[in-house]
């Protein structure tokens, strides 16, 4: 599984989704990118499978300009849908497109655009109803067949999509759009030989049909016949060099052939041709991140998730770009959004671990951050995740945690020592003042006065007058050095030394 180094130069490497491969995608699929194996510390683009992505709008530049053959009423409603979508009013835009479709049943663009917006609002059931309604009226309209198949495939119903395409073909066997829809459903089920047959039958009906050529090239790429896939796409490009799906698919083939610079140009062209084409923006963004242009990469991936808000892989890739910009909180938000959309996308758990181990989260102590990073590794492994670097990363994390614990212990000891020193210093003057006042020396009494009764009591010199006797020096009382009288030197009270 591919990785990118955190922030382009960190110790830790993040993962992208395991789903799909450069050769494993349906034609015109939402081939949202993820990070791949680094050249050193750089992310690389790896496509994901079609069923993980969302629909492509029927009208280029959704909603784009209204088709030229619209009646006046339908045109006004279509234009209203355009304005509301651009203003962010998705519900209003969907209603306007549905109204345009109802006013002119032949306006397949309006019906499909309404379905696309319903998908963006999370209303898959409503979107599918709209796509099916368009196919009922216009079975030759490929975007409706394509989006219906993709929707079913993303919801784990690729077999149902295949069955529906076959049922519709029984009624309209010459509908190339349905043949291409069948090919996409078969690709989603990994039925490569049957998908190749469906694409060839579509080309037999219409030899210059570009969607059929993209499907055929996708089959060849999945079979690792990359040169043949490129040849088919180059032919398709000669027919219509403004078809974004051709450029997008060609970008994957160039990656498989080892020409990343050319792949970057292909994805850039696809994104420029279709501002509303999320897979192109996602893939272009991944290669921009590969070049460490994280700011541009994030901008492209933001566009991708705007048009495909339910795509977990796109959100995970955006998290990678945000981490490259050292935007911890935005990166974490993107990773968590990916997991909320697809709890099985365990590589987002891995990337969260890397984010926590290699970044600084404002307001979160380093030890808690490191321990949380390890817990994300635990969740990744418990969900079945495997990575050859994981053991080494765990050792690095354990060492980092141990260093942080020791640092905190040292800080605690230093803090306690400083507090003790401050407390001792605060108590020292009071402790020194107390001895100075209570133990001041008392002047000694004359030695004779103290000694006379003792001599008499002991039967010494008889009472009565007699010669006075000088007392011996050894019987004098008082503290040594206090004979001079007076208090202790002033410096002792001040604590001078």
Features of this protein?
497 residues, mainly alpha, Serine Threonine Protein Phosphatase 5, Tetratricopeptide repeat, two-stranded antiparallel sheet, 21 helices, disordered N terminus, disordered C terminus
Commentary on this structure:
The protein is an all-alpha fold. It has a domain at 59-138: Alpha Horseshoe (Serine Threonine Protein Phosphatase 5, Tetratricopeptide repeat). The protein contains 21 helices and 4 strands. The strands form 2 sheets. Strands 1-2 form a two-stranded antiparallel sheet. A hairpin with a 7-residue loop joins β1 (3-5) and β2. α5 packs parallel to α7 (176-188). The longest helix has 49 residues, at 390-438. The chain starts with a strand and ends with a helix. Residues 1-10, 17-64 and 446-497 have low confidence and may be disordered.
State the low-pLDDT regions, or none.
1-10, 17-64, 446-497
CA-CA gap between termini: 73 Å
CATH class descriptor of one domain? Mainly Alpha
Total beta-strand segments: 4
Helix and strand pattern: EEEEHHHHHHHHHHHHHHHHHHHHH
What Rg do the Cα atoms give?
Answer: 42 Å
Shape: elongated
Structural class: mainly alpha
CATH topology of one domain: Serine Threonine Protein Phosphatase 5, Tetratricopeptide repeat
- Mean of all residue-level pLDDT scores: 78
Summarize the structure.
The protein is an all-alpha fold and 497 residues long.
Helix and strand topology:
Blueprint: E1 3-5, E2 13-15, E3 33-35, E4 45-47, H1 72-86, H2 90-103, H3 108-120, H4 124-137, H5 142-154, H6 158-171, H7 176-188, H8 192-205, H9 210-222, H10 226-239, H11 244-256, H12 260-273, H13 278-290, H14 294-307, H15 312-324, H16 328-341, H17 347-358, H18 366-382, H19 390-438, H20 447-457, H21 490-494
């Amino acid at each position: 599984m591919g990785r990118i180094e955190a922030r382009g130069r960190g110790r830790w490497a993040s993962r992208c989704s395991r789903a799909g491969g450069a050769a494993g995608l349906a034609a015109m699929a939402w081939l949202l990118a993820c990070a791949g194996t680094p050249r050193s510390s750089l992310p690389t683009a790896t496509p994901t499978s079609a069923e993980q992505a969302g629909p492509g709008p029927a009208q280029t530049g959704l909603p784009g300009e209204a088709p030229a053959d619209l009646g006046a009423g339908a045109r006004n409603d279509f234009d209203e849908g355009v304005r509301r979508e651009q203003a962010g009013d998705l519900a209003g835009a969907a209603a306007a497109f549905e109204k345009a479709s109802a006013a002119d049943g032949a306006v397949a663009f309006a019906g499909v655009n309404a379905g696309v917006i319903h998908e963006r609002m999370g209303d898959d059931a409503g979107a599918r109803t709209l796509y099916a309604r368009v196919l009922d009226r216009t079975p030759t309209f490929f975007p409706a067949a394509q989006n219906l198949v993709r929707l079913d495939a993303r919801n784990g119903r690729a077999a149902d999509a295949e069955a529906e395409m076959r049922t519709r073909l029984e009624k309209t066997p010459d509908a190339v759009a349905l043949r291409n829809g069948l090919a996409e459903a078969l690709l989603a089920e990994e039925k490569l030989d049957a998908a190749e047959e469906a694409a060839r039958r579509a080309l037999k009906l219409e030899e210059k049909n570009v969607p059929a050529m993209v499907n055929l090239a996708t089959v060849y790429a999945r079979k690792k016949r990359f040169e043949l896939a490129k040849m088919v796409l180059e032919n398709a490009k000669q027919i219509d060099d403004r078809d974004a799906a051709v450029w997008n698919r060609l970008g994957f083939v160039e990656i498989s052939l080892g020409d990343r610079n050319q792949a970057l140009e292909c994805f850039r062209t696809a994104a420029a041709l279709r501002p509303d084409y999320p897979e192109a923006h996602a893939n272009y963004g991944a290669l921009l991140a590969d070049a460490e242009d994280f700011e541009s990469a994030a901008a492209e991936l933001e566009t991708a998730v705007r048009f495909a808000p339910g795509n977990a892989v796109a959100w995970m890739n955006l998290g990678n770009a945000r981490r490259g910009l050292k935007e911890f909180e935005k990166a974490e938000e993107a990773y968590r959004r990916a997991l909320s959309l697809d709890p099985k996308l365990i590589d987002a758990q891995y990337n969260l671990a890397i984010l926590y181990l290699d970044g600084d989260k404002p307001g979160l102590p380093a030890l808690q951050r490191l321990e949380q990073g390890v817990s994300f590794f635990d969740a990744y492994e418990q969900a079945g995740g495997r990575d050859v670097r994981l053991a080494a990363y765990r050792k690095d994390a354990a060492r980092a945690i141990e260093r942080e614990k020791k640092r905190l212990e040292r800080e605690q000891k230093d803090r306690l020592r400083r507090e003790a020193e401050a407390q001792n210093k605060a108590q020292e003057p009071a402790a020194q003042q107390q001895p100075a006042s209570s133990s001041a020396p008392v002047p000694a009494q004359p030695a004779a006065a103290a000694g006379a009764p003792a001599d008499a009591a002991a039967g010494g010199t008889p009472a009565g007058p007699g010669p006075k006797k000088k007392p011996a020096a050894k019987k004098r009382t008082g503290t040594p050095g206090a004979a001079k009288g007076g208090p202790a030197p002033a410096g002792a009270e001040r604590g001078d030394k």
